Structure formats: structure tokens, C-alpha cells
Fold:
Amino acid sequence: MLYLNPPSGKDSEPELLHTTLCAINSFGVSSSMATPILLGFLFLILVIYKIYCHLSPKQMQQIMQSQGIQGPNPKFLLGNLLDIKKITEKASKKQKSSATHNLEHRFFPYFVEWKKAYGKNFVYWVGCEAVLYVQDPELIQEISSSGSFNWGRPAFLKKDRFPLFGNGLIMAEDQDWLHQRRIIGQALTAEKVKLVFGSVMEASLPILNGWAVRIKKCGQGSIEIEVDGDLNKITGHVISKLLFGSDYKKGFEILDKLKVLQHTLFKATRIVGIPGSRFIPWAGNKKVWRLGKEADFLIMEIINARKGFADDLLGLLLQEVNHDKGLTTQDVVDECKTLLIAGQETTKLSLTWTLMLLALNPHWQDRVRAEVMEITNGAYPDINMLSQMKIMTMVLNESMRLYPPVSYTVRQAKRDIRVGNLEIPKGMSVLINILGMHEDLHLWGGPEDVYEFNPERFSNVEFSRKNSGYIPFGFGGRVCPGEKLARMEQKAILSMIVSRFSFTISPNYSHSPTSLLSIMPSNGLQLLFTLL
Ligand code: HEM
Structure:
């Protein structure tokens, strides 16, 4: 087992619940605060909840229990939020001084504890929202084939994340979702992705040349580079060019705004899941509204300046405006925000974590380099060479197993749905813990192996294909439409890096992954680079 520097700061809480836990903190649910005003407020919330919920928590619990699905007992109004808070605090006190790749214990210690008590599928409560936790690959297969239109996104998440995604593809449902999915699909086919290869090279070369110049200038053989920022620039350039074509530079400003918005949304002290809370004008909410509007405004500026339909993804989306049952201009704005966030951050993070893992595992770094050199003959790769890079694929797969950029996904039953032997009642949310699946001892070879970086496990192509416990790009109808693009970018950028530089971990790097919608390093990634 390889150990990394311990985290310097406090461990972050998982974002899904972080915000809700902050809500408890900010409410200060203690007996001393139980003033008549607070009680009146809680009563009002309860009434609103009752109106919102399809079934009462008790009814949902009974339905699930009658089917053998157990779970921790929910408390009045707060569900299991206080349990989550208690378990998280206990776990962070116990945390070992050295950090490993074991992220589930770090981000979801309460899931780990509940799995031990209730098995791989159980029900827990986020306030009044019933959530079915699923970590059984067979059940996930059943959900996959139970029809995309049966599932939506939980209303409280859609509202909470509205400034970031609006009604873009991630949040869209029913016919809107299908329509948007078709348009995005057209822009991300294998053929279209080939055309993007040029912009990956165009974005990467100046940055990598800059690294080489700095190494030569310093005269010490190696220098420290903060790679996270540079990978941001490369992946931001690629997605921005895909979306906005020749207007791509304006995309950088929008991306910067969306990142601050994302950090504010997931770090700010807010209440999630309580109706009306997003309208309360406190500082976090106000900042989120302002940034959301500013991002919209910048995208509208690009749209308004357009004459005719350009040959980019924005052009494709604009062609759908004003058609019968077509998109509105606001839908196009929302789609741009969605694609910028979904397409840039995830790809960047997968590269960041892969570089960290290769820096820690020089043997695998050498193997990837040898393969790239053999295929490219020491020159830059062309698009057709990427598919020959098998060891590179194994390394990337293993990196996304240990550090999946998206750690979980949530659906909500739009009607009563039969999934295998289970009857899932309308209104119940289902959380699929991608990280938990990727660290499942039964799927990945026991406690000795599961947290190890071992790309060899992906050498058996049949195993990887069959194993539905591996879902870094999601599953079913909502599977990531950007997978081909992401995989091309990953390979192109990595092959250029390993063929020019070797790298190790800098003593200044402290291993402190945090979860803000995606799993990211809290303090960036600092590596020591040497020219080959
Ligand atoms: C390594 C890179 C990436 C990873 C690991 C990743 C992962 C995922 C996952 C797990 C989902 C499913 C989420 C869910 O079911 O809730 C998803 C959906 C999505 N991804 Fe990606 N993604 C990546 C790159 C990209 C890129 C490059 C784009 C766009 C150019 C993109 C656009 C989207 C969109 C629009 C959805 C929503 C699909 C829908 O709901 O129908 N992703 N992604």
C-alpha cells in the first residue's frame, strides 16, 4: 500500500449532504433554541412537506420494510441527518494520520456503517425525502432497463442546482430530455470527436512547451508544476471550442464564473431539501443568484452577436430554437452551462488523479511511456494511434475506479416502478453510490487489493465489460454522452505529457481529496517534472 502525505485541513463532507448538514448547524437544533418562533417555523415546514410528499415517510418505510428493505430509523422532520452528522464526526476523529485511496470511508462513512447493518440496499432519509441506497450491480441493471421515462431527478436537487444547470440535459426529463439528448448526441459521435482532436493539440502544446522552457531555464533538472491549473486551461479550451467555435475565448470567462458558482453552491451554508429555502436572501443564496445571472448574460451576449448558424454545438442548438416543440433561448443557455460544467471539470479531474497515481507508481508511468513511444515513434500522436494504447486505457480505467470524478448519481421514481423483485413507490429517490461500487470488496478482490492502484485488473477486457460494478460514466439511458470525447482527450493529453516528461510527487503536495459535486484535490496537485 502506498501512502500519501496526510491532509492538512479538515476532511470535507460529501456535497450531497454537506449542504443539508450545514442546514442543521445553521438551525442549531438544540433544546435551548426551541423558541415558539422556531417551533412555529418547523410546523410550517412540516405542513409544506406534507403537501409536497406523495406518501408520508411512515407509509414509504412500511412499503420498503414489507419487501425486506431495512434502514436506520428516521427522526421526526430531520430523517437521518443527525445520524449522518454524528457518524461523519466520529469517522473524521478516527481518520488515520496517513491518507490512502480509500475514499468511501472518507466521504460516506455513514453508508459504510449502514451497509454493515442493513446490507447493500437500504432506505435512509434526507429530511422527509426517502432515499433507496443501491449498491447491488444486478439491481442497477434492472434500473437500467426499467425505462428512462420512469425516472426523473429529485425535485429538491433540481431546484438547488438550478442556477448551475437550469433545465439543461442533466436535469431535463421526459420529451425535453430525449430531444436534448438527440442534439447533444449528434455533436459527440465518434466522427465528430475526431474533429476535436486538433483543438486538444492546439490547447496542450503551448502549455507543455511552457513547462519545457521553465525546466531548461531553472537549470536544476526538475521543477515543481501545479498541474491542476494548466489542465483546467487545456480542458476548458477544448469544451469551449466545441461549444462556441471561434467565440471560444468568451467561454473561459463563463467557465470561471460557473466554477465560483459551483464552489459557492456546495460550500455555502444553505438549506437543501426544505421548500422555499433557496429564496431566502442570505449571502450564499445572493451570490449564487448573481453568478447564475452573470453566466447567463455572457452566454446571451454570444448568442445575440451570432448571425446565421455557425458550425459548432451552439449553432446546432440554436437551429432548434423556434421549431415546433423546439428549444427556447433559455434552454440553449442552460445547455451551454451544463456542457461547460459537465464536460470540463470531470475530464480535468480524471487527468489530475491519473497523473498523481502515475507519479506515485513509477513502474506504471514507465509502462505507459514505453507503450506511447512505441506507437508514436517519439512524435506527437495522431487520433488513430489513441485506440492502440491498451496500457494507457487500463491505467485510466483504474484511475477512474479509485477516483471517479462523479462519485454518485441520483434518480427519483416518477411513478410506482417494478425493478426486479422490488416495487419502488412514486416519489422515492434512488442513490447509486459509484464510489462505493468501485470499492466493493466482493467485486474488486478483497481488502488487500481493493484500495491498491492495480491497472492489471483491467487487462481482462471481458471482465471490465461484464462487470456492471464499474460505472464511472454512469449507466442506462442517462449514461454520459461525453464519454468518447473524454476518453480521446485523456489519451491525447496524457500521451503528450509522458512522452516529454517524467514526474514524481512534490513534497508540497498534501493528499486531501474533497467532494464538491466532483472528487477533487483540495489544494491542487503539485508534481516535480523532469525533461526526458
Ligand atoms: C472523465 C470524464 C467524464 C466522466 C467521468 C463523466 C461522468 C458522467 C456520469 C457518471 C454521468 C451520469 C450522471 C447521472 O446519471 O446522474 C454523466 C452524465 C453526463 N455527462 Fe459526463 N462525464 C465525463 C465527461 C463528460 C463530457 C466531456 C461531457 C460533454 C462534452 C459530459 C456531459 C455529460 C452530460 C450532458 C450528462 C447528462 C446526461 C443525461 O442526463 O442524459 N460528460 N457523466
Remarks:
- The chain has a mean pLDDT of 84.
- The first helix runs from residue 15 to 27.
- Residues 62-157+408-449 form one domain.
